[in-house]
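User: Let's play a game. I give you a shape written as tokens, and you guess the letters that built it. Ready? Here's round one.
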């Protein structure tokens, strides 16, 4: 499939006198704040920046003040992904932003073992121009077996702003999970995360890792399990799964961080069958709220629990009432 590239207008500005003597990349970052400095540096190296009509490829070049700067933005694609007609549940769509309700089982990004059939392939089919954005516009991810809401940027401007909002912790992400054991009414896990020393596809709590903070609130208690609402202060890979397991309450169905756990004898037969048959980690990205990356309009979205988690909770509730 031939991919249509989004066209981005050229950027033009005059260097103010108060920036005289500064490096070119720093000046570009100040004048064109909608784009990250690293992106501007890449455009300079790629010959996309002219100073008074002459191409400059040196980010360290000093400006004298009064120069005319012309920038030809590029839609920095990581690689070329083919579009595939995979149905998507779109919660929001405009020229700058998509919000997708991802089903469980759908891989988000192509990688080893999943070169196609992913959310990225579906997005590029929906809008081929997304193939020219970093990671097809994805600014955060969900694991294959985690369901729920994902934001996708549809323009460089939106991508830069959403990335900054996530870094500034101004994007609210709320999850629901079913975990082993009875938790307290509320709790916080503040534990640094890093790659597992041996199993490099997994994360672990480790001194010297990146700071990570997870909060939870118990929504319901069953005979031997808890239904939690979970919020994040940070967004590390596998954060909720690792933190809850570290706390002694791994997510139901999470074989990576919880293993195969025997069902306690006090759990009734119906609930035991539902637990044994649950095919994935019982984790759902339920809520997503943030200002629109371009208009600033407050946005808030909510995704109902998928049928498999609803059925699991019903079985556990029946167990608790027995």
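Assistant: Ready! My guess for every position:
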């Amino acid at each position: 499939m031939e991919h249509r590239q989004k066209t981005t207008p050229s950027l033009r500005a005059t260097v103010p006198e108060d920036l005289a003597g500064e490096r070119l990349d720093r000046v570009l970052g100040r004048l064109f704040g909608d784009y990250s400095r690293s992106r501007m540096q890449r455009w300079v190296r790629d010959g996309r920046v002219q100073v008074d009509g002459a191409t400059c490829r040196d980010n360290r070049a000093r400006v004298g003040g009064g120069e005319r700067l012309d920038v030809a933005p590029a839609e920095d694609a990581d690689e070329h992904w083919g579009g595939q007609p995979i149905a998507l549940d779109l919660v929001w769509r405009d020229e700058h932003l998509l919000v997708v309700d991802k089903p469980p089982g759908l891989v988000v990004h192509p990688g080893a073992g999943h070169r196609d059939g992913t959310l990225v392939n579906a997005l590029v089919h929906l809008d081929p121009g997304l193939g020219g954005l970093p990671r097809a516009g994805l600014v955060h991810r969900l694991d294959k077996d985690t369901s729920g809401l994902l934001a996708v940027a549809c323009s460089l401007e939106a991508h830069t702003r959403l990335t900054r909002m996530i870094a500034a912790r101004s994007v609210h992400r709320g999850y629901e999970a079913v975990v082993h054991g009875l938790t307290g009414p509320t709790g916080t896990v503040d534990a640094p995360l890093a790659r597992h020393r041996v199993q490099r596809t997994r994360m672990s709590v480790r001194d010297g890792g990146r700071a990570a903070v997870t909060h939870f609130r118990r929504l319901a208690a069953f005979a031997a399990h808890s239904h939690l609402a979970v919020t994040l202060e940070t967004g590390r890979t596998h954060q909720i799964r690792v933190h809850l397991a570290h706390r002694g309450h791994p997510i139901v169905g999470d074989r990576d961080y919880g293993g195969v756990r025997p069902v306690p004898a006090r759990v009734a037969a119906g609930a035991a069958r539902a637990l044994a048959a649950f095919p994935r980690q019982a984790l759902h990205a339920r809520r997503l709220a943030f200002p629109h990356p371009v208009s600033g309009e407050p946005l808030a979205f909510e995704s109902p629990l998928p049928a498999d988690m609803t059925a699991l909770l019903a079985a556990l509730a029946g167990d608790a009432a027995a």
